[in-house]
Amino acid sequence: MSAVARVFLLSPAHCGGERARLLFDARARFDLARRLHGGHGPSLGEVFAFLSGLYFRGKLTYALAFARPPAGGAGLYVITPCDGLCAAEEPVDVVRLRRFAAVDIATGDPRYHEPLARDAGRLAAALDAAAEVVLLGSVATGKYVEPLTRALGDRLRFPAEFVGRGDMSRGGLLLRAVRSGVELAYVPVAGAARRGARPARLEPVPRLVPPTASRLATPARPGPASALAPPPRVDPPPHLDPPHPGPGRPGRRPGSGPVRPGR
């Protein structure tokens, strides 16, 4: 008997804030920004991993490790602010990223809800009744849960251990599961307790980079399959990294001037 298909839906990164401003700056010289502005658009996965850091990197790494795509279908999709469900390897340019940044998904904007409802409906129609769709995102509010539940019903699930955790804790939890090779337990969203007490803090572990050898069939929309190569880790530009102490001068690099965050 074949395994039940399992598809992951990854919540989007916030497309505003300091990291987004760095990408929007046409003068930026780090590789991701240069590709974003230069006509050789980086992938959606790369861009969201840069914007969100640990949380999105954890979601993408976990989905690549544990998805069970249906025959001819996809193992994961990324929820976007205004383009519905997209493949993680879809290219993103600065114009598209600005469109994402202009939509507040928490306000009921139809630019968010209508494409998501459309693609969730297509996904529901493409999956058999036994398939599971796992939301890797917040379930505490209705911004993801409500439109997805309307389309997917009882097939929509989430990791039970997400309850009570913040974004960084969820990201760390997902990376630990990949490291151990033990998948988290999922529960149906319908009828579940989606809020709870904050669990104990996770102990730190060494950094885990997404497995570059993994590939999933991930079409741009529910339909014909294409190959997904997980994006490489994207480091922030140097001025977002913590300063490296120089000899006898904590918080300074040898030969550098005063450290000014955000410069």
Describe this protein's structure.
- The protein contains 8 helices and 8 strands.
- It is an alpha/beta fold and 263 residues long.
- The chain has one domain (6-193, 230-237).
- It has a 6-stranded mixed sheet, with helices on both faces.
- Helix 7 links the parallel strand 4 and strand 5 (156-159).
- The longest helix has 17 residues, at 110-126.
Spatial strand order of the main sheet? 3-2-1-4-5-6
Instruction: Please count the helical segments.
Output: 8
User: What string, H for helix and E for strand, traces the elements in order?
Assistant: EHHHHEEHHEHEHEEE
What kind of sheet is the major sheet?
Answer: 6 strands, mixed
Question: How many structural domains can be distinguished in the coordinates?
Answer: 1
Q: Percent of residues in helical segments?
A: 25-40%
Binned strand content: 5-15%
Intertermini distance = 58 Å
Overall body shape? globular
Report the oligomer.
single chain
Q: Taking Cα atoms only, what radius of gyration do you get, to the nearest Å? A: 19 Å
Which spans have pLDDT < 50 for at least 5 consecutive residues? 211-220, 223-232, 238-263
Structural class: alpha/beta
